[in-house]
Structure formats: structure tokens, C-alpha cells
Amino acid sequence: MFMADNQTPRIADPARTREIMAQYHLRPKKSLGQNFLTNGRVLAEIVAAADLTPADAVIEIGPGIGALTQYLAEAARHVTAFELDQRLLPVLQDTLHDYPNVTIVHQDILDAAPAQLAALAPELNIVANLPYYVTTPILMHFLESGLPIRRMVMMMQKEVADRITADPGSKAYGSLSIAVQIRAQATVAFTVSHTAFNPPPKVDSAVVVFDFLTDPLVPLTEQPFFNKVVTACFAQRRKTIMNNLLNWYGRTPEHRATLTAALSHAGVAPTARAETVSIPAYRALSEKLQPQK
């Protein structure tokens, strides 16, 4: 935790952001999904959602010009920010020079070895304003990493946030909802208007808080096959769960009998749609279909 003096300008101030972009001749890269957050209230709310203490270590993904990094550095012991865009490295060295508890790493977070990240602290906090196109890969990377993560706070496209937190029976509920919810409790903390960014994206965003489950709803050893079952069930959303399973598992009379018994065991009607089935029912179905060793 490092408290700058009152004279330290807020990087997120719209005028300051424009000044930095002009000084470094910056144009946000569409290929990297860059939209710089210029609303201090939103940044403060993100940090509040992370529930940081002065003893915490934070991993930030995609610091941009350092707007969120500045707020994180004032709340946590140390911030390690991973930035992929080489153009932004001298910008970050300038905008964050008053914050000795910030380390900038020029690396794709997906290329960082788990041991490299685990060495940063016994318990990690991850905060990110993610480019829309990499939200799911980065989210699943950390959910499946096995790292000692206490909490993860991510800003993402509101539509994706709705899918992640959806309940069975809703149109948004799908394989992504299940993949996340078996590993973490996900909650939408608040939504963010597209006008809070420079340049403004075409859609609104949402900040989602992920609290990792000590015991996943599906044990790690069962997850690979469980994921295959769920993916098969959602292959064609308009088809019944039986039709989708037959296409994946096989259409012989023996296959149909096995699937009928498995669905009955899980309490799922063969005519049900995948989006109506709960996670416990999917686990029961997966357990019944799991090949015996």
C-alpha cells in the first residue's frame, strides 16, 4: 500500500487521459480491445469490490495507461501488472513513477507459468479490465489454474457477465455458466456504462466478483469428463437433451438404454432442454456415464 500525496494527478481524469494519449501519440489498438477507463468513481468501486487489505498482493491484467493500477497501488501491498502492448511500457513507467509498490511485466498473462504467479504471494487477488475478446480464455485459465486465489474481480462485456451468473431455466444459462459456477461463486457487483471509457465501446460492461470455492462442486478428477457431457448437452440448444446426447454418445439401442438410465438417475426428462438442467443434475448424469476404470 502506497499513499501518494494530494498533488498526484488521477490518471483516470478524462483531461489527464487525453493529455497522456497526446503526449505519447497513443491510439487505442482495436486488435487488443483497448478502451481506457476514465471514470474515477468506477475505479474506486472496482477496488472496493476486490476488498483488499494493505497486506494483499494483486495481479492486474492489462493496466493500459495505469488508471486502475493507481487505485490498486493505494489499497494493496504490491501490484504486479501484466501488459502485452509494448507501446504502453514507457507510459506506465511515467504515470506510475510515484508508486514503488508497482511492478510492470511485459508478458501475456496466458504465457505466465503458474509457479511464476504463485511465487508472488501465498494468496493472490486478481483484478482486470479485460478486452472483450480474451475474457473467456483468461477467466477459464485462472479458474482451472489451481493457483491460491482468494478473489478475482473482472470487468467484462455485460452479456458475458449475464451468461456467467445465469441460473438454470434462463436463456443466458449455458456451458460457460456451469464451467464457472462449479469452481467459483460469481456475482455481478455493478454495471458500467460504455460512456465511462475512451474510446467508448459499443456495449455496456459489468464488474463480476469471483470467490473461489474451497471444494469445487465437481471434483477436479471428474471435471474433464463432466465438461464433455455438458458440452454435448448444449451442442444444439433447440434439441432435447436426449437428442444431443445420442449425437455424442452413440445411437445404438444399447447407447439409448444407457442414456435413458443415466438421465433417470439424474432426475432429468429425456425431453428436457439443456438450459433447464441444474449443476447437481449434470454431475449425477456425468457420474453415471463416466467410463469405469
TrEMBL record:
Q: What are the Ribosomal RNA adenine methylase transferase N-terminal domain coordinates in residue numbering?
A: 42-214
Q: Does the keyword RNA-binding apply?
A: yes
Keywords in UniProt for this one?
Cytoplasm, Methyltransferase, RNA-binding, rRNA processing, S-adenosyl-L-methionine, Transferase
Annotated EC: 2.1.1.182
What is the reaction catalyzed? Answer: adenosine(1518)/adenosine(1519) in 16S rRNA + 4 S-adenosyl-L-methionine = N(6)-dimethyladenosine(1518)/N(6)-dimethyladenosine(1519) in 16S rRNA + 4 S-adenosyl-L-homocysteine + 4 H(+); adenosine(2085) in 23S rRNA + 2 S-adenosyl-L-methionine = N(6)-dimethyladenosine(2085) in 23S rRNA + 2 S-adenosyl-L-homocysteine + 2 H(+)
- Principal localization reads cytoplasm
InterPro entries of this UniProt entry? KsgA/Erm, rRNA_Ade_diMease-like_C, rRNA_Ade_Mease_Trfase_CS, rRNA_Ade_methylase_Trfase_N, rRNA_adenine_dimethylase, SAM-dependent_MTases_sf
Q: Which CDD domains match?
A: AdoMet_MTases
Give the UniProt entry's GO cellular component terms.
Answer: cytosol
Q: Which residues bind S-adenosyl-L-methionine?
A: N35, L37, G62, E83, D108, N129
Instruction: Please state where this protein is localized.
Output: Cytoplasm
Please verify whether the record's keywords include Transferase: yes
Q: What GO molecular function annotations does the UniProt record carry, in alphabetical order? A: 16S rRNA (adenine(1518)-N(6)/adenine(1519)-N(6))-dimethyltransferase activity; 23S rRNA (adenine(2085)-N(6))-dimethyltransferase activity; RNA binding
Q: Which PANTHER family match?
A: DIMETHYLADENOSINE TRANSFERASE (PTHR11727), DIMETHYLADENOSINE TRANSFERASE-RELATED (PTHR11727:SF7)
Record family assignment: Belongs to the class I-like SAM-binding methyltransferase superfamily. rRNA adenine N(6)-methyltransferase family. RsmA subfamily.
Primary role: Specifically dimethylates two adjacent adenosines (A1518 and A1519) in the loop of a conserved hairpin near the 3'-end of 16S rRNA in the 30S particle. May play a critical role in biogenesis of 30S subunits.
Name of the molecule in the record: Ribosomal RNA small subunit methyltransferase A
Q: Which organism is it from?
A: Schleiferilactobacillus shenzhenensis LY-73
